[in-house]
Amino acid sequence: MENDYVIEMLHITKEFPGIKANDDITLQLRRGEIHALLGENGAGKSTLMSVLFGLYQPDGGVIKKEGKEVRIKDPNDATALGIGMVHQHFKLIDVFTVLDNIILGAETTKLGFLQKKDAKKQVLALSEKYGLKVDVNAKIEDITVGMQQKVEILKMLYRKNEILIFDEPTAVLTPQEIDELMDVMRGLAREGKSILFITHKLNEIMAVADRVTVLRKGKFIGTVNTADVTKEELSTMMVGRPVQLEVEKTPAKPGKTVMKVENLCVPSRLYKHDAVKNVSFDVHAGEILCISGIDGNGQTELINGLTGLDRISGGKITLCGREITHASIRKKSDAGLAHIPEDRHKHGLVLGERLEENMVLQRFKEKRFQRCGFIKFDEVRKYADDLIERFDVRSGQGAVTTARSMSGGNQQKAIIARELDREKPLLIAVQPTRGLDVGAIENIHARLVAERDKGRAILLVSLELEEVMSLSDRILVMYEGEIVGELDPKQTTVEEMGLYMSGAKRDGKEETHHGKA
Fold this sequence. Notes:
Layout: E1 5-16, E2 19-30, E3 34-39, H1 45-52, E4 60-65, E5 68-70, H2 75-80, E6 83-86, H3 98-103, E7 109-110, E8 113-114, H4 116-130, H5 145-158, E9 163-167, H6 175-190, E10 194-198, H7 202-208, E11 211-216, E12 219-225, H8 231-239, E13 257-267, E14 274-284, E15 288-292, H9 299-307, E16 314-319, E17 322-323, H10 329-336, E18 337-340, H11 344-348, H12 355-359, E19 370-371, E20 374-375, H13 377-390, H14 408-421, E21 426-430, H15 438-453, E22 457-461, H16 465-471, E23 474-479, E24 482-487, H17 494-501, E25 505-506, E26 509-510
Parallel strand pairs: 3-10, 3-11, 6-9, 9-10, 15-22, 15-23, 18-21, 21-22
Antiparallel strand pairs: 1-2, 1-4, 4-5, 7-8, 11-12, 13-14, 13-16, 16-17, 19-20, 23-24, 25-26
């Protein structure tokens, strides 16, 4: 019956230059259900949700709320209808505090004065209730990507929305945080809230969703009950072919030391102490070494120190026999370092520039791409077209597409294509498959293993325990800025890794209390 649906999007069409993002899509959301929206990168999922939230106007089709047709001209209209959205690319103001971002646009006032104390109490109560711990006084620019995700969720809960859109909400969360979020979503559904959940992660869909709508290349493929399908069937619906869900690789054959890190210390941006404390390790040619840990335990600062994004307060870094401890980002890159960054917008792309220009960011000085200081634009275009084809980077206008207009997954694929093709001795890959669909993840994992087998050293940082266990040859676990254990993925378990990640175990010994061994 029509009344069963709290939201209906009927025959929605949305076009952009060179691409039909949504082509006659119908989606119906029942009251109190968790409804997953599944599709490849660039399938049109985020566009469809942006239409529902009023960020885009549809070129065709209608939206109904509780059986009545509505016009959603902007996010204010969506909010008035009880629709909230956690965006894949965060809508936060970097120089504002966490609290200011959460209450922005929904401020409580009394006689014209802002009531921040009351707002703070409400936010702290929500964060406690849903297990979304954040520092309300910290500035957005100083907190991790995982913390920013929590702020986005709290923004929506603060506004008491009834229809909740989660756009890739777990992309930057740890396994423990993902489990907590799943519990939060189930609790919200029990309270009568209706949830639209965009994800690429089939395990999450199977664990939490009641129904799934699948899109492929902008078209509606079908809506199914989760209980009636398998992961393999869903991946085939999404990609159009069977997908290999397991990583296939032979044992590593580690060679010479490519990077040596000795007693490295990196200051915290938030606090007065060091975020990375006397960390030492080697990365060898022909191996994938993974740094694992719960988000916020120094992994971001460690990578920023290694790549030159943050200053180093102590220790030594040697790359290919050359000391690069305090070298600039450019010199570290020239010395043999490629980097897939954690934050693709801040450190991976120049969003206002074209895709082809982003593809040659570190290479435009090479003779192939310039003569006497003048860029050879035909060579840049040819190179970009080649990478776009080889790595299946989907964009409406090919090489001349503005980076900002691409889907998050295709932005990620563009960065991966650029960094893998540079063929540097060391690749630092931070969350390389964040926001990618199963087909793209299968492809990237295979490429990383192939690079390893060619003798490249790979330093992987991942919050995905499945990825850590299946892709890495060695695992180093970080806790409170220190390496607390080195594990062999073939001889450890997810449960044991969890003990190290939580600080309950250190260097093979059980901790009797939290703190230093």
